[in-house]
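Below is how a single chain appears once it has passed through the pipeline. First comes the sequence as given, then the structure the pipeline wrote out for it. We keep one example in the README because the format questions we get most often are answered faster by looking than by reading.
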Amino acid sequence: MRNYTLIFCLLLSIYTSAQQNNMKAFIDSLMNKMTLEEKLGQLNLSSGVGNLPVITEGEGKIEFIKKGLIGASGGYNSLKASVEESRMGIPVITGRDIIHGYKTTFPIPLAMSCMWDTERIEKMARISAIEASCDGINWTYSPMVDISRDPRWGRVAEGAGEDVYLGSKIAEAYVRGYQGDDLSKENTILACVKHFALYGASEAGRDYNTVDMSKISMFQDYLPTYKAAFDAGAATAMSSFNVIDMVPATGNKWLMTELLRQQWGFDGFVVTDYTAINEMMHHGLGDLETVAVKALKAGIDMDMVGQSYIGTLGKSLKEGKVSLEEIDTACRRVLEAKYKLGLFDNPYKYHDKKRAKEVLLCKEHQDYARELAARSCVLLKNSNNTLPLKKEGTIAVIGPLANTKIDMLGTWAATRDTEPIITILEGIKNVAGKKAKILHAQGSFFTEHPYLLNVNNKTGKEITINKEESKAKLEEAIETANQADVIIAVLGEPRKWSGEAASRSDITIPACQKRLLQELMNTGKPVVLILSNGRPLALTWENENVDAMLETWHAGVQAGNGIADVLFGDYNPSGKITMTFPRNVGQVPIYYNHKKTGRPIDHTHKFTTKYLDVPNEPLFPFGYGLSYTSFNYSNISLSKTNLKGNEELIASVNITNSGKIAGEEIVQLYLNDPKASVSRAVKELKGYKKIYLTPGEIQKVSFVITPEDLKFFNSNLDYDWESGEFNIFIGTNSSEVKSSSIIWNK
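Resulting structure:
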């Protein structure tokens, strides 16, 4: 058997080498025929977004493509012009933000991360690629793998939360799903890892803002997710807007060349974020020609929309500021991506109307979207077993997010037709059936805050809320609630309040929505709060007062049906949050794997690290999530307590379903190094297992721990482990854990 394996590996190596040689020969021949302008054209991405003055947009774009001056652009007409009307016939590549599904929109990435299920996330990405690839798209600006500890940042909706271990596993899953095992297949697309790097740590949680951190923090807490995606084979990367060591990422040679290519071995191409080269001028790095040179020399291959390369590099070449070799290297990387996609063999392979008719929003994909909508839900509170609801009696569904289709999709949603979207009200009606009477009232607007209403208002006329209409909505809601046996309040954020350029300084539920909730509580009826939002919210008052809280996020095209499946118990919720929920915004940034302090909290002494007005602990910790059943954990059992060298440790617990219904539990393993050469986190996630237990069932869950799990980056940025004592934690979330300790020497 071993001989067959060796033969297979040898044949695979020979085949791969032959493919590389064929690609090199083809691109060599192609580039020998290209003019300088055509090479620069391959580095020019033209976007159809169009809220910035870009001369290659609109009617002029096709003429630029015919001249070979655009290498990436969307639409069939752009592709046709590049193939049939340009001198070289090089196909344009077409990229889009396929972030959580294409036409079949799944829950936002932050929501799906709460499943802790990489296989299902990979399948979601596979479906996304299948749909997008038949509709002209062969490149997605995803996954976003930025670690973020600040829920004020709107783009947390696009990521996997605050933990680097879980985030890395999810990053790998996205790449595998998009790219499959062969990029030349008609249903695979290029992944683009973004935003490289550190973008999720922007100061004040404000988009496009600066980032500043130590090298140890970079390597320990932020960079591993990017590396995991590249190790999984991601074909492209996108530069971030922020500075790193005070140099913008887009012009940072240490980041783009020394780290990404030389240390990590990345061989794909790097595209900027939208006009990121141009924006280096705002950072104070020089005029457009200067920053374009800086970007090229740093290792940036494609300019998204800014036209700095196509507009200035010819002049810079004549002046000796860049070399033809540097331009050729960038051009080659872009052409290699097109070659790997098979565009030179069949440029129209991604425009397949027959396949589009079969797969876009097909039943199989919609059913899967419904499943993920349910699995992404996190049960935050359930006093007196308020949930699941019975499919009987009178149920009032109240709130501004109860019956709004478009807001179910969340940020970056390609679905334009709202007809397929199932609202929460519709889902409740569908799942409850005919035995239950469903009432509905809007109850309030999303907000009455004048600044929030007008911050992105382009109409020129101030948006105001009619106070009489607001009062009437509230009175209607109270009247409706008084007729019900139970009230479902659907509150939170519309889709435009999260995602890019959607940072919020106040992450509580808006005042008018909270006023509605207070009035619903005053009826004395049981109140279930459904949260529809794109970030963790501060929910202290809500947690103290409502009977049950279900975090549903922006759950996608099948939001209503999936959420209703959870509400009525057709699915027992198993999601656990991947970002910490603060008590108030004053605790932000807040995250479970914080470092220790020399003055830990001690309420008997004044001069220790604590707030005067609120506990240090979050409202809901990382990894938290309830079930309709209950799980009991035994103490940790260790295979040994003293280890040496490359031995393995097995840490086990027995989990018992002590409730009355079957359910899933996510068992989490954390480690802590209490005595190290640098200050370590109080605990770090190092493993997890999702198990299914019937009532009364006991299951032993074991984790294999090796020295690899003990490694960290020290002050010299060496990745290694040190002899000593280690603490082991296993539990249902990052706070509720069983603990034990060992000694492990090298």
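The chain has 21 helices and 26 strands.

See the next section for the split statistics.
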